[in-house]
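Table 4 source record.
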Amino acid sequence: MPEIAPFGSWSSPITSDLAASAAVGLGEIAQDGDSLYWLETRPGEGGRAVVVRRRASGETKDVTPPARAGENPFNVRTRVHEYGGGAYLATQGVVYFSNDRDQRLYRQEEGAPPKAITEEPKESRALRYADAVFDQGRRRLIAVREEHFAGGKPPENTLVALSIDGKGRQSVLVRGSDFYAAPRLSPDGMSLAWLEWDHPHMPWDGTRLLLGRLGAGGAIAQKREVAGGEAVSILEPRWSPAGELYFLSDERGWWNLYREREGKIEPIFPFEAEFGRPAWTFRGASYAFSSPRLLYCSFQKEGLSQLAAIDLETLQQRTLPTPFSEISSLSADGEAVYFRGGSAFNFPAIARLSALSGETLILKSASAQDPEAFAGYLSEPQPITFPSEGGLSSFAFFYPPKNRDSAAPSGELPPLILRAHGGPTGAASATLDWTVQFWTSRGFAFLDVNYGGSSGYGRAYRQRLRENWGVVDVADCVNAARHLASLYLVDKDRMAIRGGSAGGFTALAALTFHDVFAAGASYYGIGDLAALGKETHKFESRYLDGLIGPYPGQRAVYRERSPLYAAGRVKVPVAFFQGSEDAVVPADQAESMANALKANGIPVLYLLFSGEQHGFRRAETVKLALDAELYFYSTFLSKVKLSF
């Protein structure tokens, strides 16, 4: 018989250690010959990222050298745009990668130590590289370069060509725009496609797809604009084996597949679904060619992913059954399609789907734990649609409490933890997440809200947040919580809101301007919007123009929506978790808000983690933060006090 205990006090085998150390980050799948590569980010190694190779024989091993005592370990990460992505390239048996410590590019041949091929800048990490491609005919790499300067001058982003052996000077191929991404070389090596955009746009607002013809010396001899503009977002340009340029465009309201054929642009798979995701990082891969005639792609419909195959001659499509509800980072060959997949009962994993049999094989799981070992403790997400402001509907995933060993007293409703995702153009995922199950297995209900502005629901849904950040997102979170309470699924007096980064701002704003939540937690969240615009890095420095309005012209709106300047309205306890080296949301944002609440007599928990950046990567940090948050809720939210 289950033990009768109040919601929020249940014992659970899903511990903070499990949540902190078991989940390995997986992504950036690539192929070179008969070898498959991917990137693993390991919390147990201080968040270090390593390149892993799997040979056709099934042999799997790290390519990145192991950490040695007394040495700075190689950590495959680029800080271009601060969020990185596209940190390595595998070609002809050689791996080129960006090392986090110095941001230099390294060349690593099999059996040899990495060798730096870019100069060491005068200032630490002043030269950064991302999203490189190999120009075989000219024996060089073409990459995005971000150069940082002393004295407060904004960084300069360019496309550069550089030698693969570290000899010779770098040459700038394209400059003049604020940002560049996705340089892609045609199969014959004669044409280069790339994306560019300028402030105040973000890449999901408006980008331009350019095509340049390479001259005899390898420079851009002539160029033309293929697609895009200020109100159209182009993503993921890629050449087919037949030499045709493909890309994603949201010109018709959804990121769909297009190609340029014989000078004309035509849709490949017109569909009210999202084939792309906001380009916070480089090297998105929602589609891949397995042959000149066959393309595999993933798309999101109502927050869930599907996999499809397209015949490029007939444009016939067929959906491929998989056990996954989230699919990304595709790569393909004639035998199979490889991708990162996850679902409600599957951890994110590197998966292989056979083109012949349709069988799916897990090559690497993000967790060493078998989810079946926790049967009876795992809560399944339930997609919900709820009414919000202006007669509009918004979306969320609801997780009811679940624990086979425990039950609540008759008539008791569970406390709610509502999560506002980051971005704010990101999206809640329905993939198995130890952090979510950490809460639900203890008797909390959990709600992941895809508020207006989230991706996965089309451009119009993303645009709901335009000039309305701090209004639409907050209203959706408040209305989502009220909706559950009205259905008697949660206790209306014991609802908490948590969020990280932009989600942290939404959480703080909800706690400040609404009397709905009894407590809250902000992970590296924003308290002062004006300070964010002044202090943050180049990539996001004009982001708020679209979310709120240009500064200082809209100074009054920035102040009006900033939780810091209305801290006196906060009446409930708040927990703050912050990294000391956060370049996106500096620590003084959390400190200012925490100090303001303390001055007003509001209970505050503030934890500053030395060495952590924007998004916690160390296992010990994740563990301590979760334990502290649970203790915080046990003090201010649960009906019983937990012992530790």
